[in-house]
Amino acid sequence: MKLRLTLFGLGICGLVALYGTVIAHMPGPGKMHSPYSRAINKLCVPQRHVTDAVTAVNFDYRGFDTLGEEFILFASVMGTLVLLREAAENKGPLSGDSASEPRNVRPTEAVRVTALALVGPTVVFGVYVVTHGQLTPGGGFQGGVVLATAPLLVYLADDFKTFKRITSHALIEISEAVGGGMYAVIGAIALVLSRPYMTNVLPLAQSGGIASGGIIPLISIATGLEVAAGFVLLLYAFLQKTLAERESS
Amino acid sequence: MTTYAYVVAAWLFAIGLFGIVTSKNLVHMCLCLTVVQASTYLLLTGVGYRPGGTAPIFVNLPAGAPIVDPVVQALMLTDIVVETTVVALMLALTVQIHKKTGNCDPNATTALQG
After folding, report:
1. Would you state the pLDDT for residue A35?
2. Do B55 and A19 make contact, defined as CB atoms within 8 angstroms?
3. What percent of chain B has pLDDT over 90?
4. If you count Cβ atoms within 10 Å of the first and of the last residue's Cβ in chain B, which end, N or C, has fewer?
5. What value does the mean pLDDT take over residues A198-222?
6. How far is B13 from chain A (nearest CA, A)?
């Protein structure tokens, strides 16, 4: 522990020295805007008909990188499922669907009512954020997370059985795969037309409209599907695991 | 204003790393890693900040208004979501380690076991 702290101290001294030098030589506040940001701020409306520059960067200018990030998300969700599934199988029949629900603490009425009242607005808001990423702040990543909180609210209001009933496990797994695959396939459509990967092949439409941006809203929806399904799968795996632990103890 | 953000970013990085170095629990370690990662969010959005700048949403913007850098913001938002799932993966690993060895102390799980 002592050696580790010494190494940490040395590292921090080095960091402070180097980082301090860098900060001292940085241009002052406001003078530092990269040529990329200027170009994108100037071009994203005339070139892509998209009013939210962040979405244009995410799903178009930097779309190939985002595809890679999406596969990181996909891989870690799969990894979590594999790790926790094995644990569940070792438990034997206890973790099966027929196992009774050992929930000692019922949520109070106030929690139940508030959580259930929030489910509908959460779903609507999530769908809105996913589909309007090209116009206002939002897009697949943010909206997907909002959508995934809806089943969690149901769990909060009731129990895991209800959570399982409203989220078909097979359907969620398929959604996760389709969301990830759809992104890659939309990008590949341009290849068929012998154009570079992820080139826009759809009409760009009137900027400010819901269909503006060509393939950007489609990619956003694919991402939203994958993120939402991924988070619900994570919730499912952890809740299942927790309940199996509780049963065996 | 921007310099202040850089200093806070360095502080977050240092305190998170200190947490990882001295951690006695793997769950605590995972959360310290998210603190370290929060420093990158702050640093990059600080780099993209412009005084008086508005969000890069081009609806009814006055001409010539300063606009913050959209590139770093796009980097951040994908990273935040991906980070959450990676933390879930690490917590799942923690669950497995606890099951195999009976404790969550990173110092007790140094050797690789097949």
Report:
1. 84
2. no
3. 38
4. C
5. 87
6. 10
Write the ipTM: 0.86
Beta bridge partners of A52: B57
Q: For chain A, how many structural domains are there in total?
A: 1
- Chain A neighbors of B42, CB-CB under 8 A: none
Task: Name every residue whose Cβ is closer than 8 Å to that of residue B2 and which is 6 or more positions away in sequence.
Answer: A28, A29, A30, B46, B49
Instruction: Answer yes or no: is A12 within a domain.
Output: no
Q: How far is the C-alpha of A73 from the C-alpha of A173, rounded, in Å?
A: 14
Residue carrying structure tokens 């990269």:
A34
CATH code matching the domain that covers B2-51+66-108, chosen among 3.10.180.10, 1.10.287.3510, 3.30.70.890, 1.25.40.10 = 1.10.287.3510
pLDDT band at A129 (very low <50, low <70, confident <90, very high): very high
Residue closest to A147 by CA, chosen among A66, A50, A223, A217: A223
| Rounded Cα distance, B56 and A61, in Å | 15
Question: What mean pLDDT do residues A45-69 have?
Answer: 90
CB contact under 8 Å between A76 and B79, yes or no, is no
CA–centroid distance for A91 within its chain: 30
The answer to whether position A23 is within a domain reads no
As a whole number of angstroms, the distance between CA A222 and CA A216 comes to: 10
What distance in Å separates residue B26's CA from the closest CA in chain A?
A: 16
Strand partners, B67: B54
Q: Which member of B1, B17, B58 has the closest CB to residue A53?
A: B58
Res A241 pLDDT > 70: yes
Residue A52 lies inside a defined structural domain of this protein: no
B56, B66, B96 member nearest A87 (Cβ):
B96
Classified as helix, coil or strand, A229 is helix
A95 touches chain B (CB under 8 A): no
Determine, yes or no, domain membership for A192: yes
Instruction: Sketch the domain layout of chain B as residue ranges.
Output: 2-51+66-108
Query: What one-character-per-residue DSSP string does A127-143 give?
Result: HHHHHTTTTSS--HHHH
Residue with tokens 């940085």: A26
C-alpha to C-alpha distance for A40 and B5, rounded to whole angstroms: 24
Q: How far is CA A26 from the centre of its chain?
A: 33
